[in-house]
């Protein structure tokens, strides 16, 4: 009773001389009995523990020596240890590689008295490694002495895993268009998977549907030698964990291969490898399963449903480029078939080319005979007709030669056949020639003509000085357009030698000069230059002519047969303004460029008349009929053709 009265008296008559003093929550304890104080402490402890028990995150209380005095239920649920297992002991959940880091963190903790938001990792009782955020404070008793530590932990493993998964999927998505080779892309994906799920190996296993076998297409391996051995292995598509996944279309976790009825140990034996656990997920398109994404030997803990979900997402991303590669291979096969058909088409064109060459040659020779047999007065009357006929026959022959240049392969059977017949019948032909024509050299002339028309034309590659060759050919060409009122400027700098057939280079140079002259009205300018470019000698031909429309420029880029004015054919002399119209010269040069590995580049701006016609602002009269006076030619119209060669290596 007296104790109670004293307690009351003490509680009502005395005040704490220093209210609010930190570290002394029981300042009036001197007026209470030890039993009262004990009950108050026990009550505070029960309330304190009830609060910790209520927390959804793991929490524990440590003695000053860091041994456990309390763990809450959330700690038991997350980490697996109970208070009975840990009471009076230190918690064995610090990973070995993090112990130096933890010692530094503990020193800062005791120095600062609190710790907030410290991100680290801790192990569970069953060996799982968790990402956690740690908060804690030092606890003191009523005499301000160290009483212990209160620590709370937040398990952020799922959050961190989601962040890593998101980042990995983002990196893979960005990598899809960057990797042009499928094997490199899938090896990159396997590397991301191996790092993210923390396994020894990650592999993309595809199905060879023809042979019904699995093969290891790409992978990322901790041991490169093991990876090289896996690349050589094939196994039946109905065997192993991969076979089961292929059959069912569902993922499969194998926690222990020793207990799995699906594990196919032959693969391990061939690779010299030991698989302890694995996870396989299907790689599927809309129509079928085309392979398996496989991860082997997880380093920390077992495979989880989260691993299955993540790997399935990555497998879906990998399916698209794999399917695209299959489509691409089909396209390549189609291209090979089209190429074969194109070769057949070339044979037909070859045949046509040689078939048309013979009657054209006969017609040309016939015109020569007719001209010889005509009386002088008749010849004068028929001169224009004969000239026009000869001009068009020569144009057809020229077209035939250009078509022949467009074809890489040549067929010399007509030459062999005619040469053989000529040799066999040479004596008889000579007798006939002497009897009927009186010309003993007729056989030799016929032989030369056959060689000229049908004989093989060797393309011998030689070293050529471009500036010297262009100068020589310009001197030979300039008299042919002396009747034109054009200014020809030449600037031919000394350059290194190039290697190619002289005949091909001559056709390129002559074709460029001829085009520039024929599509430039009188009073225009043609510039021919040779200089040294970044990779070697350069030939540039520039004219101030009518240029090319944007549509014709596009057709040329797409390898179509076009001319500046493809619908307006003319029968004028070569090098006249707008004399041509066949549209083969530039295409032939492009084919030469591919065959002899030089670059051909064209810049062209149409004149005002051509530009107006394209937009419907000008009439449809032939351009040659309105460009005599040059009134439609603008300052910027014209064409520049640049031919870049590679210099000869010594």
Could you name the key traits of this structure?
650 residues, 5-stranded antiparallel sheet, 20% strand, elongated, disordered N terminus
Radius of gyration: 46 Å
- The total of helices stands at 19
What spatial form do the alpha-carbon principal axes imply?
elongated
Indicate the multimeric state: single chain
For the terminal residues, how far apart are their CA atoms?
Answer: 121 Å
Largest sheet geometry: 6 strands, antiparallel
Stretches with pLDDT under 50, minimum 5 residues: 1-29, 409-417, 560-571
Number of strand elements: 18
| Mean pLDDT over all positions | 76
Strands across the major sheet, in which order?
A: 8-7-6-11-10-9
Structural class assignment: alpha+beta
**Can you give the helix content as a percent range?**
40-55%
Strand residue content: 15-25%
Structure, described:
The chain has 650 residues and is an alpha+beta fold. The protein contains 19 helices and 18 strands. The strands form four sheets. A six-stranded antiparallel beta sheet has the order 8-7-6-11-10-9. Strands 2-1-5-4-3 form a five-stranded antiparallel beta sheet, sandwiched between helices. Helix 6 runs parallel beside helix 11 (305-373), helix 11 (305-373) runs antiparallel to helix 12 (376-406) and helix 16 runs antiparallel to helix 18 (585-596).
